[in-house]
Design goal:
Strands 10-9-12-13 form a four-stranded antiparallel beta sheet, with no helix packed on it. It has a three-stranded antiparallel beta sheet with strand order 1-4-5, with no helix packed on it. A three-stranded antiparallel beta sheet has the order 2-3-6, with no helix packed on it. The chain is 11% helix and 51% strand. It is mainly β and 158 residues long. It folds into two domains: 54 residues, no CATH class; 76 residues, Immunoglobulins (Immunoglobulin-like, Sandwich).
């Protein structure tokens, strides 16, 4: 009888706590909206329970790590359509743009260590970048105008 009573008591205790997972109010958090996008963030959930007795009270609690959800990715105003293909590539990569005067833009080919392997001006709407001399791996192509990054592309070299 005593075992059955403890089982029922334990069952009801666990059932009463089952709906409490990550309940509570975030201790820090907000929604941020700007011209370049929207993000919701929180600094964690503080969940606690206060037990009060005749000689005082005690609050027991836990801090859960924050959960970050990006709901919109920023876009740059006056964006130019850039295409970089084929990806993955073994011999060359083509940078194609919708601009009429690409002479004011240049690209940088960057490896995973951050080393700039090649930096040249774009000389037309379609530009070929030879990849024969580089090892297989992941590379970054950064398109820039007046020292400002306009677009970035990850390229896989086979």
């Amino acid at each position: 009888m005593k075992t059955k009573f403890l089982f029922v008591l334990t069952f009801f205790f666990l059932l009463s706590w089952a709906g409490r997972g990550q309940s509570g109010t975030p201790s820090v958090g907000s929604d941020a909206t700007g011209s370049s996008g929207h993000i919701s963030f929180s600094g964690g959930f503080a969940d606690y329970i206060t037990i009060t007795g005749s000689s005082g009270s005690v609050s027991l609690g836990v801090q859960h790590p924050g959960i970050y959800v990006i709901t919109d990715l920023p876009t740059k105003p006056n964006a130019i359509n850039w295409k970089v293909y084929p990806n993955p590539s073994s011999q060359y990569v083509i940078i194609e743009s919708s601009i009429l005067k690409p002479e004011t833009y240049h690209y940088s080919l960057i490896d995973t260590k951050g080393l700039i392997l090649k930096k040249e001006a774009l000389n037309g709407a379609i530009n070929h970048i030879p990849m024969d001399d580089y090892a297989a791996g992941v590379y970054l192509i950064k398109i820039m105008k007046d020292f400002n990054s306009i677009a970035e592309f990850k390229i896989i070299k086979l």
